[in-house]
Amino acid sequence: MVQLKALVPISLAIIILNSCNGNPKKNSVKVKNNIVKNTVQDTIFITNSQYNILINELGAMDIEIVKSDLLEKIKNDSNPILKIEFEGNYIYAKGNNIFKSSVPKGCDYFYPLDNNDKVVINDKQVIKLRKVE
Questions:
Q1: Tell me: the pLDDT tens digits for 82-124?
Q2: What's the rounded Cα separation, in Å, for the pair 83 and 23?
Q3: What Rg, from alpha-carbon coordinates, does the chain have?
Q4: Cβ pair 133, 59 in contact under 8 A
Q5: Which of 76, 90, 111, 129 has the smallest set of CB atoms within 10 Å of its CB?
Q6: Per-residue pLDDT tens for 58-72?
């Protein structure tokens, strides 16, 4: 009975070490660095002075971009993450192709993308954000 009690923890330790190949920290660091790197490169920061809120009700927020250089950057980027200064905090918005039924994860709002992964912006420089529930 004593041998069985000692054998169970040893077996578990061997299984755990074999499943992670003995170096789980290196793999997780690589993944974290890639996520941080991609998020920073793909993120467009929008301050309060660069937009006007046209609608903010019932899970919908329409913002008008008032800075032309920022508008061009948003139009030319492919599927950017928008980090928007709002009421002293930041909200994050990610793109979602208009033909997909799902919404992106890890964000507060989403906005429509066309088939070329470009932000859909109407003639009045408005981006339609929808709340992720």
A1: 999 999 999 999 999 878 778 889 999 999 999 899 999 988 9
A2: 35
A3: 22
A4: yes
A5: 76
A6: 999 999 999 999 999
d(Cα 34, Cα 50) in Å, to the nearest integer? 29
Instruction: For residues 38 and 31, give the distance between their C-alpha atoms in angstroms, rounded to a whole number.
Output: 11
Tokens 């992720």 belong to 132
**Residue type at position 117:** D
Q: Which residues contact 111 (CB under 8 A, 6 or more apart)?
A: 82, 93, 94, 95, 96, 119, 120, 127, 128, 129, 130
* Residue of 81, 75, 84, 92 whose CA lies nearest to 49: 84
Amino acid code (one letter) for 102: S
How far apart (Å, rounded) are the C-alpha atoms in residues 31 and 3?
40
| Residue whose structure tokens are 């980027």 | 77
Longest CA–CA separation in the chain, Å: 78
Can you tell me the distance from the alpha carbon of 13 to that of 10, in angstroms, rounded to the nearest whole number? 5
Q: Which two tokens stand for residue 56?
A: 């903010």
